[in-house]
Every structure is written in structure tokens, then in C-alpha cells.
Specification:
The protein contains nine helices and twelve strands. With 316 residues, it is of the alpha/beta class. Helix 2 (70-73) links the parallel strand 4 (61-64) and strand 5. The two termini are 27 Å apart. Bound molecules: NADPH dihydro-nicotinamide-adenine-dinucleotide phosphate and oxalic acid (OXD).
């Protein structure tokens, strides 16, 4: 009846410590010190090495340390057991803060002010009002809906695009591939909060960036902005750079990348209107994921429904 903490990052011991602190002493193991594999009933996983989950004969539940599960579904040998993904108030709040911060940062032209500061240049730049800026959220799930509400509260005009239509107060909703372009042409600041699935991989390319609103935006915002806090596989980095170079994009904030860590050779590191953050828009707290894992295990053991079950056919 043991839980295996299975991660290729350095946080495994921290997660295990937090689970043990909840009273699961002696029942927690950390990969690769898994002990007898037949004892393992639950896995708390983040980017596990492919094939390892398939070696656990009595596995009954996989708990994803993150909200995204692409790191699990990429394993061709993933066993057929339920997967629950992490949904947590603090995680959502961190993401909401990240999105709001970066929308404000670019619409208030902070990259240009930072550049001016380096040159001791004192010059006022025109800035749009929040209500003159249309923020388009790709993804209206837990993260997207919370960000939509926060952006509305900050005065921005908000629209969202998802697989299905959504009703969110004061947010214009678009759904599916047939409404993608209508959504993009209505968007000045594009925020990606989608999961990485076969349908969304590489979706945000030059064509998508070119379709963003260029006419009718406030003349105080020099061009469209792209913010990606979903997954790096959603976008094409070469296209972002080309769009910046061609003036089709004004600025970008990227938390996630095609390859992580972002290689030192990437020009994104040095672009004056790109903000790079190291996949930390919403970091999982060890205490929160431990509590969440314990609750899911209790639910499974007592035959209650699991929360936030992943639908493998949808991929999220
Ligand atoms: P949810 O599963 O709650 O929401 C996913 C949203 O994406 C839904 O609105 C869904 O549409 C939409 N979607 C999925 N596939 C498509 C598609 N093919 N076309 C259009 N829309 C689609 O996820 P969360 O909001 O909890 O998280 C979103 C993502 O954010 C995670 O998958 C993860 O990759 C990323 N993330 C990144 C973090 C970071 O630190 N950078 C931290 C946490 C999450 P519908 O509503 O119709 O189902
Ligand atoms: C997540 C992440 O999916 O941190 O939660 O990327």
C-alpha cells in the first residue's frame, strides 16, 4: 500500500517529506529507491521516466504533480489506471497573478521603459487604457476562467477560446477550430493556457500570430502581444522571433518552451521585448500536492469519486 514519488526533477524528496508529514510515514518511497515494486499502489508523478509506471504491477492511481498531464500521456507504456491532475486554489491564484502581471507589463510598455532606464532616457510613452485592450485567452479551463475574471476586474476587455462554448460573465466565448480566426482577429493580447495535446501541438505559429488584431487596436499599444504560460509545445519559437522581427508582434512573455531549460543559444533570452521565465508561472507547493494526494488516495480507498480525472481520449 505504498506511494511512489516518481519524478525526474530534484523536488522528489521535498514532495515525499510533505506526504510523510501527513502521517504516511513508512509508506512513501522516492524513485529510484522504490523497494519491492509490488507494494506500490499509488504514484505521485512529475515527468516520470517513460516505462517506469508500467513496471508497477499493483498500481491503482496516478496523481499528477501538475495541472498539465502531457508529461504522463507521452509515455507509450502508460498503464491503464485512473490519472488525476492537480487542481488547487493557490496554483490557480499564482497563474492568475502571472497572467495579470504580464498583460499589465506589456500594455504599460515596461520593456521599453526598462530599455530607456538602461540608457538613462526620460521619455513618456503613450499607454492604452485597460478597456482599450482586448485580451484573448486560449483555454477557458480552471486557469483560463480564473484569469478571465481577474482581467475583467482589472478593466480589460476579455474573450476566450476553448474546445466547447463557455458562458462567463462579460467574456465573449469562441469555440473550436471554426471560430479560431474570429477570436484571433478580436485579440490584442493573446494568452495561451491550453494543455499540450495532439490537437494543440504547434498551434500558435506564424499564421496565428499574423491573424491577431492589427487594425482597430488602440494606437497606444504598438502591436499584438503573446503570453504563453501553458506549454512550450503549443508555440513555434522561430515563428515568434520572426513575427517580432517583422513587427507583427510587439512583445512576448514566455514561461514555457519547446525545450526546457531554454538553451543558452536561443535569441529569446536576449530579445529586448521578450520576457523569459523558467516555467514558474504557477509552481506546485509540496504541502498542497501532499494534501491533495492524500485526499485522492482516501477517496479511492473508500470508493468515493476521484476529483479532476483526466480524460485520456481528450488528452487533458
Ligand atoms: P483545464 O483542463 O481546466 O482547461 C483546459 C482548457 O483548454 C479547456 O478550456 C479546454 O476546452 C481547452 N482546450 C483543450 N484542448 C483544446 C483544443 N484542442 N482547442 C481549444 N481548446 C482546447 O486546464 P487548466 O486550466 O487547469 O490548465 C491549463 C494548462 O496550463 C495545463 O494543461 C498546463 O499545461 C498549463 N499549466 C502551466 C503552468 C505553468 O507553471 N506554466 C502551471 C499550471 C498549468 P474545454 O473547456 O472546451 O474543455
Ligand atoms: C503544471 C505546471 O502543469 O506546473 O502544473 O506546468
Amino acid at each position: 500500500m505504498a506511494l511512489l514519488v516518481l519524478t525526474t526533477t530534484e523536488r522528489g524528496a521535498e514532495f515525499a517529506g510533505a506526504v510523510r508529514a501527513l502521517g504516511m510515514e513508512g509508506k512513501v518511497r522516492v524513485w529510484p529507491d522504490a523497494g519491492a515494486l509490488a507494494d506500490i499502489r499509488y504514484a505521485l508523478a512529475w515527468r516520470p521516466p517513460p516505462g517506469v509506471l508500467a513496471r508497477l504491477p499493483n498500481l491503482r492511481l496516478v496523481i499528477s504533480v501538475g495541472a498539465g498531464v502531457d508529461h504522463l500521456l507521452a509515455d507509450p507504456d502508460l498503464p491503464d489506471v485512473p490519472i488525476v491532475r492537480f487542481v488547487d486554489r493557490d496554483l490557480t491564484q499564482r497563474m492568475t497573478a502571472y497572467v495579470t502581471l504580464h498583460v499589465l507589463l506589456h500594455t504599460r510598455r515596461m520593456c521599453e521603459f526598462a530599455e530607456q532606464q538602461r540608457k538613462t532616457c526620460w521619455r513618456v510613452l503613450p499607454e492604452p487604457l485597460a478597456r482599450e485592450v482586448r485580451v484573448g485567452l486560449m483555454g477557458l479551463g480552471v486557469m483560463g476562467q480564473a484569469a478571465a475574471r481577474a482581467l475583467r476586474a482589472s478593466g480589460f476587455a476579455v474573450r476566450g477560446w476553448a474546445r466547447s462554448a463557455h458562458r462567463i460573465e462579460d467574456v465573449r466565448s469562441y469555440a473550436g477550430p471554426s471560430e479560431l480566426d474570429a477570436f484571433l482577429t478580436e485579440t490584442d493580447v493573446l494568452v495561451a493556457l491550453l494543455p499540450l495535446t495532439p490537437e494543440t501541438a504547434g498551434l500558435i505559429d506564424r499564421r496565428v500570430l499574423r491573424t491577431l488584431s492589427r487594425a482597430g487596436r488602440s494606437d497606444r499599444l504598438p502591436g499584438p502581444v503573446f503570453i504563453n504560460a501553458g506549454r512550450g509545445g503549443l508555440h513555434v519559437e522561430a515563428d515568434i522571433l520572426d513575427a517580432l522581427e517583422a513587427g507583427e508582434l510587439y512583445a512576448a512573455s514566455l514561461d514555457v518552451f519547446e525545450t526546457e531549460p531554454l538553451p543558452a543559444t536561443s535569441p529569446l533570452w536576449r530579445h529586448p521585448r521578450v520576457i523569459v521565465t523558467p516555467h514558474c508561472a504557477a509552481e506546485t507547493s509540496a504541502r498542497a500536492i501532499a494534501r491533495y494526494a492524500a485526499a485522492q488516495i482516501r477517496a479511492l480507498e473508500s470508493g468515493e469519486p476521484l476529483e479532476n480525472l483526466v480524460d485520456r481520449t481528450r488528452g487533458y
